[in-house]
Write a sequence for this structure.
């Protein structure tokens, strides 16, 4: 008769413990993966942009920057908005100081934008930040916040949010077309101007059509450019104005009359990124 050896109790305990630990680690890894999906979802595609322009109250520009840097941008992200770029206006030589703050936001659509801003306005953290920052007076002038809703044109480059290693010099340009000429302007950009800009070393960032329900934006187009430096911007625009291809395109496209209003058909604001801007 064969005698069966009794199992070693300590060995059995170790095997059970090892199996339990392995199962626990697998469950933990799965939970972490699920948690990652919840905490860091893929941002929705941007279908609507908003350009916002703030006019700081006298002496409040630094406080306004601090509020964006330390609080507001984080709260924007918390509520599903996409902060893209923040810029200070560059004051032209010999002109009064221009302290305006420009920034560009992205949203899935208008409904998502309105829902996010509503949630932001009701956020207890924002209410406390706003109250604390306004104790010594408003950070912006009366009526000092402007906004424009924008859609990208069919020929606009895709949004590139990669910051440059060295902050670039930026420019916001707004064109007002003569009545009936706006599509001619877009055609000229689509078929010629963007290519010439690129050939001369300029960076075509984004090109926009203002959303249609904004009467003040009738017959306008808006675009944003980037350059290695302010000096490079001057050199590149001088080269553009003298470029044989551009001279020919402009002459042919304006055979039936100028496409842009004069004066006031071109408004340019040169910009420099803030230290807290996601885009440089």
């Amino acid at each position: 008769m064969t005698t069966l050896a009794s199992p070693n109790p300590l060995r059995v305990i170790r095997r059970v413990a090892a199996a339990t630990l392995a199962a626990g680690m697998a469950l933990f890894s799965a939970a972490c993966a699920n948690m990652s999906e919840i905490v860091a979802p893929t941002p929705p595609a941007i279908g609507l942009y908003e350009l916002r322009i703030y006019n700081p109250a006298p002496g409040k520009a630094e406080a306004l920057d601090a509020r964006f840097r330390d609080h507001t941008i984080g709260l924007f992200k918390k509520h599903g908005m996409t902060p893209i770029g923040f810029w200070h206006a560059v004051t032209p030589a010999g002109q009064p100081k221009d302290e305006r703050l420009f920034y560009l936001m992205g949203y899935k659509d208008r409904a998502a934008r309105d829902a996010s801003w509503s949630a932001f306005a009701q956020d207890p953290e924002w209410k406390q930040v706003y109250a604390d920052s306004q104790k010594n007076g408003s950070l912006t002038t009366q009526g000092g916040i402007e906004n424009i809703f924008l859609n990208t044109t069919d020929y606009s480059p895709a949004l590139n949010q990669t910051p440059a290693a060295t902050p670039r010099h930026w420019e916001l340009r707004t064109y007002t077309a003569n009545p009936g000429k706006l599509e001619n302007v877009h055609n000229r950009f689509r078929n010629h101007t963007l290519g010439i800009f690129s050939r001369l070393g300029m960076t075509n960032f984004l090109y926009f059509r203002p959303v249609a329900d904004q009467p003040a934006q009738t017959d306008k187009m808006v675009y944003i450019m980037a350059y290695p430096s302010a000096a490079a911007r001057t050199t590149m625009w001088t080269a553009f104005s003298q470029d044989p291809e551009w001279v020919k395109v402009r002459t042919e496209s304006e055979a039936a009359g100028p496409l842009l209003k004069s004066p006031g058909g071109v408004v340019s604001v040169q910009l420099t990124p803030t230290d807290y801007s996601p885009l440089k």
